[in-house]
Amino acid sequence: MASPRQLADLTDDLLGEILVRIASPSDLARAATACVSFHRLITDPTFLRRYRSLHPPLILGFVNGNFEGFQPAEAPHPSAPAGHDIARAANFSFPDYILPGRWDYWYYCDVRDGRVLLESCSEEEWVLPDLVVCDPLSRRYLLLPPIPVGQAHEQNLQCYDASLVPCADEDDEASFRVIMEMHCTTDLVVFIFSSGSGSWSASTSTSWDALSLSGLMGFSRLCFLCYAYGCFYWKVRSRNKLVKLNMNRMEFSTVNLPPGHDERQCIIVEEGDGRLGLFSHVMHETSVYYYTSMQNNGKSAIEWQMKNIIPLPNDYNALQIISARQRYIFIMGTSKFQYTHTCFTLEIKTMKIERVSQITTFGFLPYVGFPPSMSPRRI
């Protein structure tokens, strides 16, 4: 009798094609623990980038802005089991292992790609903070060096805001960047920190006059920071405008919004094929408006076309957009029947609205993305 044929060993390419089709990131995380070859393939940055491009990220939970810890997504949300795994494995009590800054307390600034950005700041608005980036899974952190701001800008500082820059597909999984936005009396100033160089390696500024924003009252002229196609966008308070920062050229410009957006909440997203998407909402209304961008006959100006009106859950009052993370818009509402706050996600591609969990406070930051322990992160 002829001996039975033996199955050929799976090549890495074929095995990768099988693993990338696992729909649940939680199941993929378990597969990574099955054997050395699975772990090597799944933790490869190229594989992870491809996986993220094919599957929506996990909504793991929320970091509470009042240092009340981590609140995982609640069942029946599909990310609830992974969220509870993160809650058990990570330490979000940062004062337990982070050295004090120049001041007594650390405060949350931002959460992205499994990292948390904290600041230790003075009660005086014009004093720049100490900044630290932490990985709550490894309990490791990096204290950022002082920002090399000039004396003129520091003396005229009115307010500031620090955020983590979203990772691009070509970025090293272990690297990160931080953007510091400074509102001075006459100028808008931006500094960029790179973990690769370990320094604030880029900076740019523009005058409020050049942006036609010198007449705005109040310290903070900009809000709703968003990132799309290598550019940052800020909504201008009480104006029908966005301020745009091109990160490649480090140049500022302005973008007009559709009429009637002076007081609206606005979130800019990547729609695909290089087009911008705009989610627009009037606080307390029960619908979100979605616009897509169109080039105006080849000119640099952008025209907007309303594409969809998305109804929001009707059992909630005080509905408002909180932020955007990866493929999701986060929306907070207060129940009409009891004083509880609930967070929903609006998935950008499908426009599907899904309840994530009840939230104890408005001061929260979404913790979204592939489980950080699966990629070779270092601080």
Automatic annotation (TrEMBL):
<dbReference type="Pfam" id="PF23635">
    <property type="entry name" value="Beta-prop_AT5G49610-like"/>
</dbReference>
<feature type="domain" description="F-box protein AT5G49610-like beta-propeller">
    <location>
        <begin position="109"/>
        <end position="321"/>
    </location>
</feature>
<dbReference type="InterPro" id="IPR036047">
    <property type="entry name" value="F-box-like_dom_sf"/>
</dbReference>
<dbReference type="InterPro" id="IPR056594">
    <property type="entry name" value="AT5G49610-like_b-prop"/>
</dbReference>
<protein>
    <recommendedName>
        <fullName>F-box protein AT5G49610-like beta-propeller domain-containing protein</fullName>
    </recommendedName>
</protein>
